[in-house]
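Q&A log
Question type: sequence-to-structure
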Amino acid sequence: TDVKVLAHTHNVVDGKCGCGLQFEAMITDAENSSKFYAKLADAAAAMKDGETLTLLADVDVSSIADGLVFGHNNTTFDLYGHKLYSSTKLPYAITAILNIDVDMVNVTLKNGTIETDQAAYAIAVSGADGHLTLDNVTATATEKAEYGAVYLSGRAAATIVSGDYQGLFLDPNATAVLKGGTFRPYAQGGHSIFHQLDNSGFSSRDCMELLDEGCVYENEAGGQVRTYGGFDYTVMVKKVTAQPAEAVAMIGDKMYSSL
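Response status: OK
Response body:
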């Protein structure tokens, strides 16, 4: 009887395959070919332009000596409903749970949770002439966290489409476009959104400038709010749908909003 030996296809659920192997991440290239990695740090180091990195389990980044760094052109980091966190206090030399370098590259981060520890941001974005898109991300700061969840440094640029962020902090020359999302204050600093006016760090620019066209800030009661600086309470970014003008005249079957 002929016996066929077929290649095993991994079916990974919460980091485990039925074959017994465990994986933290998967890289999918432009041809939709995938490779599994036992360690997230190895997958991040192997990334190339145009690829997607998918998280396959909750990962404790405290064991990654130099911190987790992500940043290749036209790449996506899909958290896939999982969480990045640190079980111990990170060294001060490591600025974030996830460091994203957008120096002349475009990166998308989506679909999961990143939680800070006591000494780091959840997400720190650096570089210039590139762009980060955040979509359906929850970035939280623990009660002992000394920093907010998201930090845009230097001339970093980002678009936030949706998600929940416990503290958004921008350097004076960093930029962001807010199309959606909820922004909450973090325990130690009290700011939900703060865009440094200058390097002194004492004052915020008018964060109304961050709103995408047609968007507004709303408080938790659903009322529209504005600021001439930053916010120190929870706000949500909502798209306002223009209401059609009331018709005041009609010719035949066609309605007109003005005479």
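Response note: DSSP finds one helix and 25 strands in the chain.
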